[in-house]
């Protein structure tokens, strides 16, 4: 992954992109969803009829079929360090970033362990890539090689290992971005494939750690993606950490929120405006809301995100001249 968009560098990073997908497979995995007596399934606040659910399964939805199984109420994703040259400090920073924001646990297995074939195998191969999700009876390989595989890079690859697709591959991407296929490097079109992802009602996030920047896999360094909300054009690919929506998606996919609500004896969800109950029973509130239960809606997540990332941005309301000091460098303040 990791597109630092020095223009000429685009091509070199393609391998990572390709590999991200080379290992995508459609393997059935146990899914921890509660099937109701009539066969219907409740996912978050969306109820699927038995027929709808079966049709979803039949269409091989990546984001459901690649979930790691939950055993005795806990999703454990063990990992093994396959190469002693791995920077364990950095690896553990990425792991604790996900552990602190989700209910997933990543126990380390000794290199000699033979008790399970299903674990993350942390390798140093060429560049930064990962298999997508759980594969029954097999390892999920993750390569974290080179400088491009920095903390963000490893967090991104672990996102894939948990079953996440790229943001620009979500089923609803066309509502949020315009993909200019003519600008894609020939042979790399698969990097902009749209997947039939299940998004659990969680909105597209330009600031997702799974979002590529606008020139990724470009033929000529021209933009491949246009943000439909133009304020986000330069935000795409800039997300350095697990975004609110990344965290909410993983916690929804893996039933963490349902488990926390149960443990906290809370029902229905007390957190408003897109917030959700965390492990400590308090609310995780999206940007743009305040109050212990996120009950005060100040502005939308996207408006709040823009205000945080580019506090000096303003809408152009009358004709005039616009100057952009430092362009095209992304200016991050605060
Ligand atoms: C390992 O990663 C840490 C955290 O980013 C960094 O401080 C350290 O210099 C890295 N070690 C090596 C040997 O690269
Ligand atoms: C994982 O990587 C190892 C070492 O390169 C390789 O032997 C194995 O076939 C890979 N497994 C999968 C499932 O890709
Ligand atoms: C700019 O306009 C958009 C669309 O009308 C609005 O949502 C946004 O809040 C405005 N931003 C600023 C900084 O005024
Ligand atoms: Zn990726």
UniProtKB/TrEMBL annotation:
Essential cofactor(s): Zn(2+)
Source species, domain of life = Eukaryota
Checking InterPro entries in the record gives: EGF, MetalloPept_cat_dom_sf, Peptidase_M12A, Peptidase_Metallo
The entry lists its GO molecular-function terms as: metalloendopeptidase activity; zinc ion binding
List keywords of the entry alphabetically.
Answer: Hydrolase, Metal-binding, Metalloprotease, Protease, Signal, Zinc
Enzyme Commission numbers on file? 3.4.24.-
Q: Which Gene3D superfamilies match?
A: Collagenase (Catalytic Domain) (3.40.390.10)
Sequence ranges assigned to domain Peptidase M12A in this UniProt record: 55-257
- The UniProt record gives the binding positions of Zn(2+) as 156, 160, 166
What is the active site of this protein?
Answer: 157
**Where in the sequence is the signal peptide annotated?**
1-26
A Gene Ontology biological process term: proteolysis
Question: What's the record's note on cofactor binding?
Answer: Binds 1 zinc ion per subunit.
PROSITE patterns listed in its UniProt record: ASTACIN (PS51864), EGF_1 (PS00022)
Q: What is the recorded name of this protein?
A: Metalloendopeptidase
């Amino acid at each position: 992954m990791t597109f630092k968009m020095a223009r000429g560098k685009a091509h070199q990073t393609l391998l990572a992109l390709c590999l991200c997908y080379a290992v995508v497979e459609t393997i059935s995995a146990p899914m921890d969803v509660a099937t109701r007596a009539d066969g219907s399934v409740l996912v978050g606040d969306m109820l699927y009829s038995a027929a709808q659910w079966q049709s979803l399964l039949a269409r091989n939805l990546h984001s459901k079929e690649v979930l790691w199984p939950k055993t005795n109420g806990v999703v454990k994703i063990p990992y093994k360090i396959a190469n002693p040259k791995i920077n364990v400090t950095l690896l553990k920073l990425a792991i604790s970033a996900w552990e602190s924001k989700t209910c997933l646990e990543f126990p380390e297995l000794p290199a000699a362990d033979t008790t399970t074939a299903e674990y993350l195998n942390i390798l140093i191969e060429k560049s930064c890539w990962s298999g997508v999700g759980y594969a029954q009876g097999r390892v999920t390989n993750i390569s974290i090689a080179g400088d491009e595989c920095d903390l963000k890079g490893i967090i991104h690859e672990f996102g894939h290992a948990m079953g996440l697709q790229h943001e620009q591959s979500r089923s609803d991407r066309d509502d949020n971005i315009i993909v200019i296929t003519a600008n894609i490097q020939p042979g790399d079109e698969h990097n902009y494939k749209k997947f039939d992802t299940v998004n659990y009602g969680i909105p597209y996030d330009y600031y997702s750690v799974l979002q590529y920047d606008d020139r990724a896999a470009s033929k000529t360094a021209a933009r491949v993606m246009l943000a439909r909300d133009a304020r986000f054009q330069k935000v795409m690919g800039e997300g350095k950490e697990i975004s609110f929506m990344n965290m909410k998606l993983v916690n929804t996919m893996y039933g963490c929120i349902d488990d926390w609500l149960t443990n906290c004896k809370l029902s229905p969800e007390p957190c408003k405006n897109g917030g959700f109950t965390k492990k400590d029973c308090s609310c995780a509130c999206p940007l743009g809301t305040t109050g212990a239960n996120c009950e005060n809606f100040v502005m939308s997540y996207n408006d709040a995100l823009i205000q945080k990332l580019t506090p000096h941005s303003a809408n152009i309301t009358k004709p005039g001249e616009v100057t952009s000091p430092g362009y095209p460098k992304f200016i991050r303040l605060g």
